[in-house]
């Protein structure tokens, strides 16, 4: 009997090695094509100093397309809900139908990211292969999740963190161990394909991390609390602004026109640094270059306006920007190394807003080196706890309460009213 069990396990491992490798290759190819196209569009837009004047027009067009043309859009929340409740059966197009909206927003300087479309493309590819192979519901769920994780791996440039991020997004407090192998293989394969196709990633191993002692650990814990409160505030602000904008009795494309005009005014008042992906300023923070103390607040404002008005693009890159600049600010505030806290804030705010402390701790290791691991892990977990039973992804399920002292109904989606703290 034991020999038979071992044979079944061997066949299962071999099966998923093949399936996840194929999904990773195709997802990596498609996601990399999208990433390179987005970067090309952004580079072309950046050639014109005043391209942000087109923000009202791009927001108007994006909202017009959303209202009358692109009605069957497969968003990240829809993918999470499909994996959690429908065995990965996706309704709508497997290719994000609002890719053109993302292009419009990012080309003119809207403060959004590119991660969600890549994850949606990957999930869709997993769904296509599941239909092609005519697998059962359990295997379909695994294949869709493989593609979902592979998409995140491509944009993070971190295969292990990308795999864990996709898995942790499904439910707070639960990790699906049966899908770890195919998710890791798909993510690593997609990452290798992206690298081979010339997609570049941000790496900056920290050369100096303060040793334990001299009050640094107290500063670190205070930083985790600070990032957690920022995460809570960001979730609340995005949800509230979206509700307010939705409730305004104005034609939706006109809301886009007005929102774009507000962003133009803010850009003229402050700086172009808070438009688009903001990769240069974000990387400068991690390298220890000083930035204005209120940079994270301005980026948050630009992002909230962009997402609540256009409802296109991803929030992850702006969250990383906000985390890095908030970390730089906090480092200056407590007299600690600016670069170290920028790197810790980079991952901690993401942990708090998405409830993914393990994935973000691994992300810190993959991007900034192993020496930051104990510090990033502590801060990520504290931020995760401090953000409460909230999430940027409302389809995420609350499987384990963060504290026995908080009343919460387990098994419900994070967007449900009885999960709010």
Automatic annotation (TrEMBL):
PANTHER family: CHLORIDE CHANNEL PROTEIN CLC-E, CHLORIDE TRANSPORTER
GO molecular-function term, one example from the UniProt record: chloride transmembrane transporter activity
UniProt keyword Zinc present: no
This protein's name: Cl-channel voltage-gated family protein
SUPFAM superfamilies recorded: Clc chloride channel
Species assigned in the record: Spirosoma rhododendri
Record's signal peptide: none
InterPro entries: Cl-channel_core, ClC, ClC-type_chloride_channel
Keywords, in A-Z order: Membrane, Transmembrane, Transmembrane helix
Cellular compartment(s): Membrane
